[in-house]
Amino acid sequence: MGRTSTARTRLLAATGELMRSHGYNSLGIAEICAHAEVKKGSFYHFFESKQALTVEVVDAYWQGERSCWVGELSVPAPALDRLRRLLDATAAVQRRMKEDSGTVDGCLLGNLALELSTREPDIQARLKEIFDEQIQLVANVLTDAAAEGAIPTDRASLSTARALVAQLEGMVLFAKLKNDPAVLDDLWPHTLMLLGA
Amino acid sequence: MGRTSTARTRLLAATGELMRSHGYNSLGIAEICAHAEVKKGSFYHFFESKQALTVEVVDAYWQGERSCWVGELSVPAPALDRLRRLLDATAAVQRRMKEDSGTVDGCLLGNLALELSTREPDIQARLKEIFDEQIQLVANVLTDAAAEGAIPTDRASLSTARALVAQLEGMVLFAKLKNDPAVLDDLWPHTLMLLGA
């Protein structure tokens, strides 16, 4: 196995790393290739376009994040404890990022959603699916919480789950803007309010 | 007064219009000048850089939005009614945008906050000040609401006001991603939950 066989993986990893801080439009293929130590000429052997690469990067990012979400939401514990573990894990990611690189880069999915939207329909479609999946995962734990009597039954809805994920994305926006992960310390009390718990 | 005397204003207006849908990095000075009908050579007569122009665009955007915020929050009505008017007005802006251009472009301030952050410190600093001002405006109306007995006293805080603006930004993100302003219809019931009203 030569280096070429890992070039595709390296391109994906380099883009994932750079795109969270640089965004989509300011990140060029030359910079990605340099970071991945892949010759620029080889790029199009692996990916049709920066768009196509980005859809794969978004998928890989969510696969990683999804295992964390599913992991935290599956521990044998009351539903609200599981939800809290998920929010704590999300805040911990931003804290580690700040410790490692000095900046809170936020959520790649939220960053791309606001930077691109309708101008990159393939990426937008994938982001939409992923956020729908996040909302469904949260809705499932809300259903459990309602069954346990921890929240009112009418809070166990997709609408409340969406509000909760929106709250998370909005607070991550402020953490990124202030470059301060401590902004996320308030997430849990506000989540409890939203849930009427 | 020739056209030159309005060139600066036209550059600001063109950038404000284009940046909400295009973002910062994908928008070039040539495109701004073409849209503003200003010769590219004149750009640097008016603005030192795209960064400097963007800080002014952000200011102008917030000045317009701020009059709307202060207007809605100052009508002679109970505090929660005033807050609701503010959220309704925000949703109405996104609905009009969809009707006019076919796309929900979201909030210029939130878009730039997630696209740029620490890589453009001057723009980031201005965005931070503006969001702090938004949060303070909301906190003031929460203080009134608590004084009227409409919400618990402990909800009249900067922390709750920040959660409310975060909720708004997160829901605007989903409205932009789905290109559907109806996502914002849920804002009010979730706001009431957050406020324990």
List the SSEs and their pairings.
Two copies of one chain form a homodimer.
Chain A: H1 7-22, H2 29-36, H3 43-46, H4 50-74, H5 79-101, H6 108-115, H7 121-147, H8 158-178, H9 187-195
Helix pairs in contact in A: 1-2, 1-4, 4-5, 4-7, 5-7, 7-8, 8-9
Based on the model shown, name its key terms:
Arc Repressor Mutant, subunit A; elongated; mainly alpha; 2 domains; 197 residues; Tetracycline Repressor, domain 2; homodimer
Overview of this structure, please?
The structure is a homodimer of 197-residue chains. The first copy, chain A, has 9 helices and no strands. In chain A, α4 (50-74) packs across α5. Chain A is 72% helix and 0% strand. The mean pLDDT of chain A is 93. Chain A is mainly alpha-helical. Chain A has helices at 7-22, 29-36, 43-46, 50-74, 79-101, 108-115, 121-147, 158-178, 187-195. The N and C termini of chain A lie far apart (55 Å). Chain A folds into 2 domains: 1-47, Homeodomain-like (Arc Repressor Mutant, subunit A), CATH 1.10.10.60; 50-195, Tetracycline Repressor, domain 2 (Orthogonal Bundle). Chains A, B: This is TetR family transcriptional regulator. Chains A, B: Residues 28-47 bind DNA. Chains A, B: Residues 5-65 form the HTH tetR-type domain. Chains A, B: It comes from Streptomyces subrutilus.
